[in-house]
# Entry
Amino acid sequence: MNELEQEEWLDRQLREAGPYIDDDGFTARVLASLPVTRREPQWLRAMIVLGLALIGTAMAYFLSGGGSLVRQGVIQMADFPIWLLLVFAFGCGLVVGAFAVIFAIRKTPEIRDLTRLDF
# Structure
């Protein structure tokens, strides 16, 4: 059973399910007794990731001979013919665009299920 058939089956089961059975507040009491989850601040996570990225960048710079590797790469790119650089840039744009389209299609349920679209 593929994912679409499974979702349709689950939707049908939920629609056909019987009415809610009153549990005399049991569900509310259980949920109220659960401990509250505390989330870390988002800025702290961002600062940790940024700090690790800066440390990694500094290590790569110093381990590559103080940027001589980057300098050599730029010099070699300057020797490339302009048409090759344009082809490379166009190809990179196509790859990034294709990934963007694939990501958008995967995140849009209406596109995944063409039978639900109203034309």
About this structure: The helical segments are 3-16, 26-33, 42-63, 68-78, 82-107, 109-112. The chain has a mean pLDDT of 83.
